[in-house]
Specification:
The complex is a heterodimer of chains A (167) and B (349). Chain A has 167 residues and is α+β, with helices and mostly antiparallel strands. Chain A has one helix at residues 14-48; strands at residues 56-63, 72-76, 82-87, 97-101, 112-114, 119-122, 127-129, 135-137, 150-153, 156-162. The longest helix of chain A is centred in the first third of the chain and has 35 residues, at 14-48. The radius of gyration of chain A is 33 Å and the shape is elongated. In chain B, strands 1-2 form a two-stranded antiparallel ribbon. Chain B is mostly helical and 349 residues long. Classes of the chains: A alpha+beta (167), B mainly alpha (349). The interface between A and B is medium-sized, with 28 and 37 residues.
Chain lengths: 167, 349
């Protein structure tokens, strides 16, 4: 007759191994669930987070010799933003020109030029900017209207602007 | 008849006595006072918002090219569209007013104190959700003011330290307001926020049910009589009267002051006079008074303290047991809110 020993009666590291296996399988299961649902959540998050970076491009503004020092032109960017481009110096380097955007650096409203007060005014939170675009009153005091990069090539002035359309 | 109830009883094993236990919560006598019905008011208006909102969703088209035109269609062409839209608009205004009044009632009666701290925090989250629903809903009309309100709102999230840029991109679906933005506002307004509010409301009401309503004793109450009455039908009838009165008020407001159409959004021109909805006047004025970071950090701090108020109040009362600080802080807060709101309402800029 063969004597059958119950596994429970074997003390040699049995309960320890069982506990280890139970813990390990619980951890593996929890880890698997966390990894599985976690990747789904990450994919969902990535789906919601916009991937499109803003594309910037150089656009032609005006021939340099058509803008005398002290004069300015209003340029409408492809995304619709109004940009004031002014010539400050008599040279033909980009530093002789300045391009100021019309989006308030405070919370993104559009500033208006108030000719009678010789200033830009933001109606949202009463921001005031000088003609050079420097914030002097209200929350944007000390900030500047956005400045755009300019370059001159073969006597033509170019500006770097966002190509995305505003909704 | 008996066979039908027998058939149902087998499938839904819920007895009348159990149902009565669920609905006949004894409520303290002071709930006969109207001030104590302000919690049920926003709940009722929330239901109005869900019903009218679903109706509006049948015609609303959330895209920059179509949004304004679809709202115009609802307002001017769809049968009773003007009425349903106006009900939705006015119920939103009343809901926010009722939530604020309810919170003030809870605050000034100290009903948030131990052991009801968690329910205060749930309530604060509901308040924030209500305000966000108001904000996103207003943006959907795609009028000039709602467009610029949305732009300012999104840029406010941008100045939140650390996570700001991420939050703004997530909210707008890009670096600025773009053709994905409106559908995001729509899904937040019509799905994410209402479902969150529904779940929070369930927790809010469950906690009230578990803790019971805070009991107050007033001098003019009948002495020696039972100090409680039954939720159903007594308090239910009170709420029913409020519901009917609200419906009359809503119908009156919707008819006399219907929702109108402002000029269509123009992303290139901010209107000369710009205001958000009245419930954001406080924040709008605050933003004019301080630099961006100072204004936003201080508003965040105030919200944070409000959220944790039961614990702050507990600390104050442990330190100075006889102090009435919470009442004075509350009065100061209410006066500041009223003052800033009136100031913003009174001036163009």
């Amino acid at each position: 007759m063969v004597e059958v020993q119950s596994t429970e009666s074997v003390p040699a590291d049995g309960p320890g191994r069982r506990r280890f296996l139970a813990t390990a399988s619980t951890l593996a299961m929890a880890g698997g669930l966390a990894a599985g649902y976690g990747s789904c959540a990450a994919m969902g998050g990535r789906f919601l987070y916009p991937a499109r970076p803003v594309t910037m491009a150089w656009q032609f503004v005006i021939a340099v010799d058509r803008l005398r020092p002290g004069e300015s032109v209003s340029y409408r960017a492809p995304n619709g933003e109004r940009i004031a481009v002014a010539r400050q110096g008599s040279g033909e380097a980009p530093e002789d020109f300045v391009a100021l955007g019309s989006t308030c650096p405070h919370l993104g409203c559009q500033v208006h030029w108030e000719a009678q007060n010789d200033r830009f005014f933001c109606p949202c939170h009463n921001g005031v900017f000088t003609a050079a675009g420097l914030g002097v009153e209200g929350p944007p005091a000390g900030m500047s209207l956005p400045r755009f990069r300019l370059k001159v090539e073969a006597g033509l002035l170019y500006i770097e602007v966002a190509m995305e359309q505003l909704a | 008849m008996g066979s039908v109830s027998g058939w149902l009883g087998e499938r839904i094993p819920l007895r009348g006595a159990e149902l009565r236990e669920l609905t006949n919560e004894p409520v303290p006598y002071h709930l006969k006072r109207w001030w104590w019905c302000l919690g049920g008011t926003p709940a009722y208006l929330f239901v109005v918002q869900i019903v009218t909102g679903i109706l509006l969703a049948f015609y609303y088209k959330a895209a920059p090219e179509t949004a304004y035109e679809s709202v115009r269609y609802i307002t001017e062409e769809a049968a009773f569209g003007w009425f349903i839209r106006s009900l939705h608009k006015w119920a939103a205004q009343l809901m926010i007013a009722a939530v604020v009044l309810h919170q003030m009632r809870v605050y000034f009666t100290g009903a948030y104190r131990k052991p009801r701290e968690i329910n205060w925090m749930v309530g604060m989250t509901l308040l924030v959700c209500t305000l966000l629903t108001g904000f996103t809903g207003y943006s959907l009309v795609y009028e000039q003011l709602s467009y610029w309100g949305a732009t300012v709102g999104a840029n406010i999230t941008d100045s939140v330290p650390l996570a700001g840029g991420f939050l703004k991109s997530l909210l707008l679906g890009g670096d600025g307001y773009n053709d994905h933005t409106l559908s995001r506002f729509y899904i937040l307004h019509a799905a994410v926020l209402p479902v969150s509010m529904l779940l929070l409301l369930m927790v809010h009401i469950t906690l009230i049910r578990l803790q019971g309503v805070t009991e107050f004793k007033f001098k003019d109450e009948p002495q020696g009589e039972s100090r409680t009455f039954s939720f159903f039908p007594d308090h239910f009838y009170t709420e029913l009267i409020i519901g009917l009165s609200l419906m009359i008020l809503l119908a009156f407001l919707a008819t006399v002051l219907p929702a109108t159409m402002g000029p269509k959004a123009d992303p290139l021109t901010t209107p000369e006079v710009i205001k958000p909805e009245w419930f954001f006047y406080v924040a709008f004025r605050w933003l004019k008074l301080f630099s961006e970071t100072a204004a936003i950090l201080s508003m965040g701090f105030v919200l944070f303290v409000m959220f944790l108020w039961p614990f702050v109040d507990g600390w104050i009362r442990r330190r100075w047991p006889a102090s009435e600080a919470s009442v004075w802080i509350g009065i100061g807060g209410v006066l500041a809110i009223i003052g800033l709101t009136v100031w913003e309402a009174a001036v163009a800029h």
